[in-house]
Amino acid sequence: MPYFVVLLLFVIVLLFSLASVSQSYATAQQAQAAIEASHAAQIASTGNLVTVITVALVVVAILAAVVLIAWLVLRAKSQPKRQWTRTGNDGWDQFIQPDANALIPALMTLLLYEMIQHRQRDAEQTWMNEPALNDMLNDTPTFPDNTWDM
To answer: What global pTM score does this model have?
Structure first.
């Protein structure tokens, strides 16, 4: 009988230990679920923030567009109306067409100036490329650079 009591106590201790282990496992799983729920809540709050900022920017853009349109309408109403006179060619004479022939003298002057500069450059290059002049330029004496030596 004492073996039976010891065995019964051993079984009871074993059952309590298994219950304790399962309770610890359940607590750990509950904590893991709480962590994942907090991550989901954090992601949802970030999404909500992005949504709120987007809606705010759209409202500001619409408000700016309404203010701009109102300003343009009020500006157009405040300016005096132009009085157009009807002529024989149905009002086409109100726009002054630029005279394209007026630019021809300026373009010719610019073209002549460029040609003169180009010829002067060619003449300078030809003069510098003469062999006698190059020999004379290359035979210049060199002076020692001892100006600072004392």
So the answer is: 0.37
